[in-house]
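User: Hi! I'm working on a homework problem where we have to compare a predicted structure to a textbook description. Could you give me the structure for the chain below?
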Amino acid sequence: MTGPGLSGLAGLVGPDALWESVERMVSFGPRLPGSAAHHRHVDDLDARLRGLGMAVSRHAVPVARWLADDWSLRVVDARGASVAVPVASYRPCSGETSTRGVTATVVDVGAGGAADYRGRSVAGAIVLADAPVARLRAEVLTDLADAVEPPDARTRLAAEDYSRVWLGVPAPPDLTLARRHGAVAMIEILDLSPPLAAGQYTPHQQEHAGLPTLHVDREQGARLRALLALGPLTATVVLTARHDDSTVDYLLARLPGHDSGADADAKGDRDPDRDPDPDRDPDRSPGLGDAAWAAGDVLVATHTDGQNAIEENGGPALLAIAERLIRRGPAARRGRNAVFLFSPAHMTADAATAKPDAWLRRHPRLRASLAMGLVAEHLGAMGWDEGGGTAPYGPTGRSEPVVVAVGHSDRLRRLALDEVRASRLSRAGVLPPAGDGLYGEGTFPYRLGLPTVAFISGPAYLLQVGPGDQLDKLDPALLHRHTVFLARLLDRMLALPPPGP
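Assistant: Happy to help. Predicted structure tokens:
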């Protein structure tokens, strides 16, 4: 799987040490934004970075925290029988009930669109709605790709199932619409089998909607509709949660001896309200001949919140890469420095916190010191799916497709593609930006106009919370190989000379 000569890289920890770092991360529990587990993970990263000798600063930002405590569903059918219905999960930030829950008649609104409410009285009711999952193929990736490696894999890859609930296609039922019609809660039927529906934390960046919503799998959804066919159905929805204002911390880590604009910001020498260019159009980005590219540092970023062993294992990977750079010393870095940023609120709506683009705007000296970015997410994933809903959920025997996305730089795109080939990365597509985004956390430096490379994958289990933390779906050798790729690519980015006159 690793290929000749690619199983290791001088100075980089081996597969076992990297795997232990991922196990350490998941030992804290699901790291939902602002949770105790999340804070423990951030504290641990802080301590480990400092232990490497790095200069670390912490920057608290507000977060509208929402953490579910308890959830359940019970129904009483037309015959008066009371039945507990297994709940797959809850809809994050949907809403809250008391410990007694909310009890009301169930009304089936189908897809839950505006037309589905016409002629139906749902005031004071609990609505039952479908959350379909588009049956897609991986051609959604390959059709966009500038290149696929190996090239002869493009056709086979394009034909593979890529049905993903986290894509939000089609959009899930509109909670605001249901609430406007007077609904007091929602039961949402995920069109997924029980093992795939269990623990799905989706949609993961929703704003608070004020309508408590539970997820059931397709089997339980069919059961509820069968009970409705017998006559009136009453349900009790329980979804207790903590919904409050809290803070989460960004971590900024610099290599020993690093002296740049990052230091001034980290020491507080900044004016967060004076961004020299707060309204920069991301499509009018700095070119490779700009002074920022010539003199600047490389931002190496990931996020710290997540649900399992893949979301987000960028932290362990960046720790390994930072340790390698320190072992190699300044001479091996040849001119540029790496600035490591660990952002804390990927799983939160933009309006609920300060995302990295907003945060960097508040640190103009740091922002001005950066020439380009490298973002890492979701390493080492193996494929699991249910064949577009036609087969039992299980392993495919293939690695999950990976995306290496590049924005704002043809030179960086060529460099990334060359490294994909040199590292013999398989089942990988090199993609351009999509609209105003660069896939996942890479979107934020991209929106600031920074030439950016983002490494990311998106398996079906990406957002699942549950026993085992999805560790069985990661391959230690592949996790290490992806980290080797990122370390080698970073070496090349750090070594890029300023462009000639």
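For your comparison, note the following. The CA atoms of residues 401 and 427 lie 5 Å apart. The longest helix spans residues 476-495. Good luck with the assignment!
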